[in-house]
Design a protein that fits this description.
Keywords: Metal-binding, Zinc, Zinc-finger. By secondary structure, this protein is of the alpha+beta class. It contains five helices and four strands, in the order αββαββααα.
Length: about 130
């Protein structure tokens, strides 16, 4: 359960997936580089007296858009390393995922290659 909260913290607020090539804006909010690039293209404000600017998707802080701003943002290496470690220790499936797969697709035992059955702990009847 704690991993679900951690996974949420390690997820991009735009795509809601684990960060891919994470970058930080000056306001300290993190995003996938590609997600931020798409956000800027979709929400660029060229009508301001200050010139071309965009707003942070999280805090709405305004930033001036300089040529190739996103490509100049350094990768957040600390965050990338944390995500890498998280992914390496994360089990392939959780009990909840396994349960929903069992209901929807029929989970197969990895050793015996037979359909899994769910039994009641009290009476040992198949559910």
């Amino acid at each position: 359960m704690a991993d679900m909260g951690l996974e949420e913290e390690l997820s991009c607020p735009i795509c809601l997936e684990l960060y891919q090539d994470p970058v930080s804006l000056p306001c300290q909010h993190n995003f996938c580089r590609e997600c931020l690039n798409i956000h800027i293209q979709q929400h660029i404000d060229t009508s301001t007296a200050k010139g071309t600017q965009f707003h942070c998707p999280s805090c709405r802080c305004a930033f001036k858009l300089k040529d190739q701003l996103i490509s100049r943002l350094p990768k957040n290496l600390v965050l990338a390393n944390i995500i890498s470690r998280f992914q390496s220790r994360k089990p392939e499936t959780t009990e909840t995922e396994a349960g929903s797969r069992h209901e929807n697709q029929g989970v197969v035992c990895q050793v015996h290659r037979k359909s899994l059955s769910v039994f009641c702990n009290t009476c040992d009847r198949a559910l």
